[in-house]
Design brief:
The chain has about 400 residues and is α/β, with parallel strands linked by helices. It is built from 13 helices and 15 strands. Helix 3 runs antiparallel to helix 10, helix 5 runs parallel beside helix 6 and helix 11 runs parallel beside helix 13. The structure holds 4'-deoxy-4'-aminopyridoxal-5'-phosphate. Its cofactor is pyridoxal 5'-phosphate.
């Protein structure tokens, strides 16, 4: 049944069906777009295109409404239980979104002597803004202590026990990642909340989870969710910050930010509609099954070392949950060379370093990140090629 569902969805990706001999396995870098998103872009640009917020004619008014409705759509997509109190700010992606939180929200949350927790083995985009904020605050005489997020290196998960031991009453803010972009595991965010208590502010980098699995702000109990549209099947240059508590209707992060990316925002709405209709729970089931199959296959090939999440456990396992990212290295072949070799066999994967912070991996690796259009046959074909390189 899941197979038929997947078959119908795969057919909706024109770039995929146009290249049946190739397998796109780099969705963690950016996702391909279904026809519905391409149609929404075309329709917007051929029927409505205008600037938002300042028009006296129908195209401009429709664009204003489109942007406002997109904010509500993001809230609904995230299962926001109190949309009247929250805020959505559109950005160009996760990188700008995290910077926006660091620049426009964080200073108001912190006082002299407070602590923040920074995940130094996560994506650079979730490290640099917090260090910049620390410097910025120091210039104003507010001294913030930065604590490194503890990790369990073998699994690529956070060490929630160590976090609970080190986090104290001054721990006001925790930057965390929902799904690790190299290690491929769900980072157990509810355990962070348990470790740091109800009053700490948790900012979630959801770049690798939005569009891949259901993301519920009520369930996760986080204060900020930041993501990129392009990884969730919308156009590049889109993204959003969801903030649990709005700072009021007059507050515009970053000041008046000029013309919004209206067509990008239209594509984001279309992408969320498509993802909800497809079912992010089923997308998760599918990509986890593919990633688990790949992990299990790799474990039998001596030439490869799998990084981070090694499990192929069911979603309800008490151990770390695997998501749809598998990263590995060959004992002798350089990861960039392996990337070229795999492309010569029709596989598009990410190789080398992965924008991971300095506490991350020292050497390169190959990352395989399937999405709903990928098939079991593609994974088996990839494993067969990898086996010949042993
Ligand atoms: N955080 C994580 C976990 C990511 O995987 C990425 C993208 N690789 C980013 C942040 C940055 O996203 P963007 O390039 O869309 O700003």
């Amino acid at each position: 049944e899941l197979g038929e569902w997947q078959h119908a969805l795969r057919a909706q990706f024109p770039i995929i069906t146009a290249h049946p001999e190739q397998a796109y396995l780099d969705s963690a870098a950016t996702a391909q777009k279904p026809q519905a998103v391409l149609d929404a872009v075309h329709t917007y640009l051929t029927t409505t295109n205008a600037n938002a917020g300042r028009g006296t004619y129908p195209w401009a008014n429709r664009t204003t409404v489109l942007v406002e409705q997109a904010r509500d759509r993001v809230k609904r997509f995230l299962g926001d239980p109190a949309p009247e109190r929250s805020a959505v700010h559109f950005t160009s992606g996760t990188t700008e979104g995290l910077r926006t939180v660091a620049r426009d929200w964080l200073p108001g949350l912190l006082a002299d002597g407070d602590e923040i927790v920074v995940p130094f083995a996560d994506h650079e985009a979730n490290i640099v803004p917090w260090l910049e904020a620390q410097q910025h605050l120091a210039r104003q005489g507010v001294r913030i202590r930065v604590r490194p997020m503890p990790y369990q290196r073998a699994s690529g998960d956070y060490d929630h026990t160590a976090l609970a031991e080190t986090a104290g009453g001054r721990t006001r803010f925790v930057a965390a990642t929902h799904v690790h972009h190299v290690y491929g595991g769900d980072m157990n965010i509810h355990r962070i909340r348990r470790a740091v208590g109800p009053d700490a502010v948790i900012c979630l980098d959801a770049a690798q989870s939005i569009g891949h699995l259901p993301v519920s702000v009520a369930e996760l109990d986080v204060d900020f969710v930041v993501f990129s549209g392009h990884k969730a099947m919308a156009l590049p240059g889109t993204g959003a910050v969801w903030a649990r508590r709005s700072r009021g209707p007059d507050f515009v992060p970053g000041g008046w930010s000029g013309t919004p990316n209206t067509v990008g925002i239209a594509s984001l709405t279309a992408a969320m509609n498509w993802l909800d209709a497809a079912g992010t729970d089923r997308i998760e089931q599918w990509t986890v099954a593919l990633a688990s199959r790949l992990t299990d296959g790799l474990r039998h090939l001596d030439a490869y070392e799998i990084l981070g999440c090694q499990t192929s456990l069911a979603a309800d396992s008490p151990v770390q949950r695997r998501q749809g990212i598998v990263t590995f290295r060959h004992h002798a072949i350089d990861s960039s060379d392996l990337g070229f070799i795999l492309f010569s066999h029709g596989f598009m994967v990410r190789s080398d370093q992965h924008c991971q912070g300095r506490a991350g991996e020292r050497t390169g690796s190959v990352r395989v990140s399937p999405h709903v259009h990928n098939t079991v046959e593609e994974v088996d074909r990839l494993l067969a090629v990898l086996a010949t390189l042993g």
